[in-house]
Amino acid sequence: MAKRIDVSDLNVYYGSFKAVEGVSMTVEPRSVTAFIGPSGCGKSTFLRTLNRMHEVVPGGRVEGKVMLDDQDLYASSMDPVTVRRTVGMVFQRPNPFPTMSIYDNVAAGLRLNGVKNKKTLDGIVEQSLQGANLWTEVKDRLSKPGAGLSGGQQQRLCIARAIAVQPQVLLMDEPCSALDPISTLAIEDLVNELKNDFTIVIVTHNMQQAARVSDRTAFFNLKATGEPGRLVEIDDTTRIFNNPAEQATEDYISGRFG
Amino acid sequence: MSTATDRRVPGDAAVDDAVAPPGGGPSRDALAEMRNPQRSRAVTDIVARVVMWGAFLVAVVPLVWILGTVVAKGVHMLTSSTWWTGNQRNINSDDFGGGARHAIEGTLQMVGVTALIAVPIGVLTAVYLVEYGRGPLARMISFTVDILSGIPSIVAALFIYAVWVTTFGIGRSGFAASLALVLLMIPVVVRSTEEMLKLVPNELREAAYALGVPKWVTVVKVVLRTAFSGIITGVLLGIARVMGETAPLLILAPYTKNFQRDLFNGNFPTLPMMINQDRGDYALATAAERMWGAALTLILLVLLLNIIGRAIAHLGSVKK
C-alpha cells in the first residue's frame, strides 16, 4: 500500500515569488521522513506540493517533477483530486468537520466520494479509528460531534479520517504543534505504527520529535531572507543528528541558530 | 544512540542575566502622572456609558412605541375567527370587520414565489463570489450587487413594469410584483450568504480537498453545510425585507378584496395593499381598525417566519 516518492529539481512559486528552489529527494516507502528547518524555509510549502495542495492557494505552481512510483503527479492528464486520494494529509491544527459526528468525520472521505454501503462504511470507520488508536476512547459515542473531543483526540480523528480513504502516502504538517506532550506522545506512537502501512512525511519544528519518529531527515533552509528555501541535505536521521555532512545542518541542530 | 535530547543549548547562561530586575523603580513624578489618567479614564468610561445607553434608548423607544400602538389598535381584530377565514368581499369601508385571509394567503404566496426565485440565484452568486470568483468578472458582479442593494423599490417596480408590461405586453399581476421583489431580495441574500461563507474556516475546505473530494462536493457538502444556519438567517432577512414592500405592489399588483390564488392573472390581494386600501378611509373607524389589524398581522407573519427559520437554523447548526 505504500509508494516511493521521487522529486527532481522542484521549484515552487506563489505568483511571481519563488518560495522553494531546486529540491530533489527520494522518500522511501514504509518509512518516516521528517522535514526540519527554520520557519519560512519552505518545508510546509514543499510538503504541500507532494499532493498538489499548494494549488488551493491562488497563484501556486511548480516546476520540476514529482513521481509517485511510476506516476507523474504533475502530468497534464493527472487530476489533482486523484492525487489527493492517493496522498493524504494531516494538518497543523486539528480540523474535524464541525457539522459532523465522529463517525461521519471518519466516513467523510468515502461518503463525499460516493460510497454509501453502510456495512462497508462501518467496517472502515472501525478499522480507521483503531488504526488511529482512538477506537476504545470513542466507540460508545460515535454519533457525538467530532468537535467535542479534546485537541489530541481531534488530531487522531483527523488521522483516522485521512487513513480511511486508504492513501499510499500520508503527509503530516506539524501535526503535534497544537498539542500537549501526552497527546504528542500518542501521535508519535501512532506514526510509528502507521509506517508499517504508509509512506509518511512529517514536518516538525521539534527536532527531538524528528529524532524520535523519523528514519530519514531532510533539513531545509534559506540562504538569506527573501531568498527561496532549499533543501540543504537529506540523510538517515541518526546521521543528520550525529554527523551531518553540511555545516549549516550542524549549526541548526546544535542550536547555534534558528 | 545519542539524539538531540541531550544537547546543551548554548546561551543558557545569558538567560539568567536577562531575568535580573531593571535598576530602580519609576520616579515619583511618573507615578503622579499615571494616577491622573486613571481619573480621566473613569470619566471617559461614564460618558461613554451614558452615550451608549442614550443611543440604545433612542433606537428602542420608537420600536416599542410602534409595536405597542399596532398591538393596542389592531389586536381585537385578530381575535375574531372571520379575520383568519374570510375576505373583504362586499364589505364597504364603513362596514365592520371582514377577513384578511385573502391578503395573508396572497402575501405568503407572493413572497414564497419571490424566495423560490431569489434564494437560489442569491446563494449561487455568493458561492461564485466567495469560492470561485477571481478577477474582473467577480469584481463586476460584486459591484453590481452593491448597486442593486441600493435601488429604491419603486425603481425596481418601474423597471419590471417597463420590461414585463410595456415591452412584453403581459398584464400586471402578482407574479410581476414578485419579479420586482426578486430584484430587491437578491442583494440581501447575496451579501448575507457571502459573509457566512467567508466565516467558514479555510482549514475545512483544505481538509476536504486533502481527502480527494472534488471542489464542488466540498462546496456543497462542507462549506454550504457549515454555513447553513447563517444562510437561513440571511434568507429570512431578505424575506422580511420584501414582505412589507408596497411600492412594487402599487405599480404591479393592484389590490382585490376577493380570494385570488392565480398569481399570473389580474389583481392580487396582499397585506400591504390591504393596509393601503383601508388607510384611504382612515377617517372611518371601521376602516382604521382593519388597517391596524392588517398591520399587526403582517408583523406577526414576519415574526412567525423568523421563529420557523430560527428553528431550522438551530437544527442545522454546528453542534458542540
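qc> Confidence is low (pLDDT under 50) at residues 1-23 of chain B.
qc> done
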